Amino acid sequence: MHYESPVRQPLILGDKSYNQITEDVVRPIESAAPRSWWMVFSIALVMFLWGVGCLAYTVGTGIGVWGLNKTVGWAWDITNFVWWVGIGHAGTLISAVLLLFRQRWRMAINRSAEAMTIFSVIQAGLFPVFHMGRVWMAYWVLPIPNQYGSLWVNFNSPLLWDVFAISTYLSVSVVFWYVGLIPDFAMVRDRAVNPVQKHIYKILSFGWGGKAKAWQRFEEVSLVLAGLATPLVLSVHTIVSMDFATSVIPGWHTTIFPPYFVAGAIFSGFAMVQTLLLIVRKVFKMEDYITVQHIEMMNIVIMVTGSIVGVAYITELFIAWYSGVEYEQYAFLNRATGPYWWAYWSMMTCNVFSPQFMWFKKLRTNLVFTFVISIVVNIGMWFERFVIIVTSLHRDYLPSSWSMFSPSFVDVGIFVGTIGFFFVLFLLYARTFPVIAQAELKTILKTSGEAQKKHHSDHGAHH
Amino acid sequence: MAHTTEPTPVVRALYHDDDVLISAVKEIRAAGYTISEVYTPFPVHGLDKAMGLKETRIAMAAFMYGVLGLTVAVTLTWYMMISDWPQNIGGKPNYNWGMNMPAFVPILFELTVFFAAHLMVWTYLIINGLYPGSDAQNPDPRTTDDHFMVELPAADGLVDVLKKSGAVEIAEA
Questions:
Q1: What pLDDT does A329 receive?
Q2: What is the pLDDT of residue A463?
Q3: Per-residue pLDDT, B8
Q4: What does residue A253 show for φ and ψ, rounded to 5 degrees?
Q5: Phi and psi for B12 in degrees, rounded to 5?
Q6: Chain B closest-CA separation from residue A57 CA (Å)
Q7: Given an 8 Å threshold on Cβ–Cβ distance, is B85 in contact with A151?
Q8: Using 50, 70 and 90 to split pLDDT, how confident is the model at A460?
């Protein structure tokens, strides 16, 4: 009944029982925070507060405090927005797409990957909201009756599509995540000794009791949510790319943008998952659950999506030449050899060259190397967005309005602040939430546990 | 309380393995007893069939909610962009909804997903009786860790059947 081919590597190492999984998952919640956690948390909190200060300054004075000028009207803010949204995509890909493909290795990593999705989409949302300048009028993007006519929002605009896409994505991701969390919160509740802790987890667990009918519905709801989230995640970065592709700026007005952006999003998202999980598995001693095999699988995804991104870059160059449009040709020539050549070549090195190391099994199973590459890829993907946005804008049709962009300390401060905010949220999550979807993981213990698999092969395949 | 009748005593049997649980459920039902509830720490595949539970219709509900979302999106875009205040934006046609429709596809899609996902999850929480702060539904805290509990009304000879089926603990309440 519980049979899996011996060719497949075990996904849960060691001789675990159901109870042992519970103990291992709940340990970070029930034990005191290590000193290293406090140190990292303090740094993240300071970065976050610095960002809050820079945002307050922006709101108080106006977005003139950023480095923007009349030629480059979109720069770090939109770069950061696209970067953060892209990072979010890996979480949904792992929890939804890999669920539809019945990939069991997702179970050890989906909870944290989804947490990353939610926290990074929150960061992303801050940028367009604050770029509005008068944030107190942000509700104008919603189609609500007003005193101007009613003058409605423009449903033809990709910027409005973005409002709907990002808010649907964020809210559906939260709901998907929470549905999975309810049974795990119930597990924490049922073990809690401290009455305050017990009460908090009682509220969070919604009274879950693991009834047979509830589990049956749970599985159906998970499957349907995965089916909904899969096209949703593809639509989100498609729509983000349309913010650019539907305009007439050379370097933006291309039909390759949607698939190219989606591949890049998955690429950068998986890199961020690697960065976070390599730390989580080490600090919380989860090596038996988040195994080297998991890391290797993700490295393969990084290699494949990195290569897709590389093909997209080359296709863009070819089409620019082949189109015969001189503005388009100049845009790409300017990217590679103009004043921002260093950004372009950083992007090329980090995104196209560095993932190719993952062809070697020795390198993709090396944890230190993986960690370094994951950081490199995230830097590269930030540069990709910067290159697309700033180098396309700074020299367009009219040479008299050509200019350069350099960020002000406020631009830098807000970006640093969102990194701080992201880590504040993730660190709080890691200490209070079950970081592994333990209920789901228990379903594969008998098929994919190391001891259980060994027992099965020793006793022959009598089913 | 309208009724003051004695609550029927229930028997709770704990099992320590999901495979034993499935065969126990089959044995108990074959012996002619009715199982009122089973509590498990994780979704045990095949348990719903062994218990004779009907298939859930929540996916159908999600489909209906999606249709509702699509209808709302069509109505919203038609009323705001075509009927109430038509404008020529970027030369895109505003004479009728059909011609303008390609520009509305992202909105139609997002609202369909939004309605289907959220209303399905609300439905799921309501029909399962889950809400913040509600009391734990499982009588024994071990059933969210590594124990499996079968709950059924007390009857003659039941305890023997349960013992034989591999229960590690049997309690009457």
A1: 92
A2: 47
A3: 77
A4: -80, 65
A5: -120, 120
A6: 34
A7: yes
A8: low
From B143's Cα to the closest Cα of chain A, the distance in A is: 8
| Residue carrying the six token digits 């802790």 | A197
Q: How far is A343 from chain B (nearest CA, A)?
A: 32
What is the structure's pLDDT at A390?
Answer: 93
Q: How confident is the model at residue B1 (pLDDT cuts 50, 70, 90)?
A: very low
The domain limits of chain B are: 10-41+146-172, 58-127
DSSP state, residue B82: I
Give how many domains chain A has, as a whole number: 1
Q: In terms of CA atoms, which chain A residue is nearest residue B77? A: A155
| ipTM attached to this prediction | 0.91
A11 domain-assigned = no
Question: Tell me, what CATH number does A355's domain have?
Answer: 1.20.1630.10
Instruction: Classify residue A232: in a domain, yes or no.
Output: yes
Q: Is residue A457 part of a domain?
A: no
* Interface probe, candidates A215, A235, A239, A248, chain B, greatest B C-beta count within 10 A: A215
Asked whether B41 and B145 are in contact (CB, 8 A), the reply is: yes
| Domain range enclosing A134 | 18-144+152-450
Asked if the structure places residue A246 within a domain, the reply is yes
Cβ neighbourhood burial of B45 (10 Å; 0-12, 13-18, 19+)? middle
Closest residue to B130, CB basis, from A149, A182, A231: A182
Distances (CA, A) of B79 to A151, B67, B83: 12, 18, 5
Token digits for A86? 């892209």
Cα of first residue to Cα of last residue in chain A, in angstroms, is: 6
Predicted confidence (pLDDT) per residue in B101-152, tens digit = 989 999 999 999 999 999 999 999 999 999 998 998 988 889 998 899 999 8
Q: How confident is the model at residue A102 (pLDDT cuts 50, 70, 90)?
A: confident
Question: Is B10-41+146-172 a CATH 3.40.50.720 domain?
Answer: no
Find the residue in A nearest to B84 (Cα): A150
- Whether pLDDT at A34 is above 60: yes
- In this complex, is the C-beta atom of B148 within 8 Å of any C-beta atom belonging to chain A? no
If you search the block for the tokens 């509702």, which residue do you land on? Answer: B68
Tell me which chain A residue has its CA closest to the CA of residue B94.
A156
